[in-house]
Design brief:
The protein has 126 residues and is mainly α. It has 7 helices and no strands. The radius of gyration is 13 Å and the shape is globular.
């Protein structure tokens, strides 16, 4: 039920109520199915907001959650050359976005923040 809620909320991630709940679903260390489903739904949006929320969830979380978010990135964003190019473009936008860390409330000093996560991901794509 929570995974389905994550998928529905991802479609409305720009709304304050959804934006408040999604980070908790993305960091649910007790139910990684919820993490992965929510991350996949956000990535399926194909926009900077969805990727920003997913990468913000990787910052400062445990390895199990990071692994499931990584799996979601592979499942959604790395199935074709076109998908990979789209992901690289989104990562590039986040790397150059001065507000990438402050928009999600993450500290830029924690594991490099969202920009650091985007930079690392971009480096693996090239």
């Amino acid at each position: 039920m929570r995974a389905a809620a994550g998928r529905r909320l991802a479609a409305a991630a720009e709304h304050p109520g959804a934006a408040e709940v999604l980070p908790r679903l993305l960091r649910d260390g007790q139910d990684t199915f919820v993490v992965q489903e929510t991350a996949e739904a956000l990535l399926e949006r194909g926009d900077v907001l969805g990727l920003r929320m997913v990468l913000a969830a990787r910052v400062g979380t445990n390895d199990d959650v990071r692994d499931h978010i990584g799996a979601a990135i592979l499942n959604v964003c790395c199935q074709s050359d076109e998908d990979t190019e789209r992901l690289a473009a989104l990562c590039s936008a986040l790397v150059s976005d001065a507000d990438a860390d402050t928009d999600t409330g993450t500290s830029p000093d924690v594991d490099g923040g969202v920009r650091g996560e985007a930079h690392d991901l971009l480096g693996r794509l090239r």
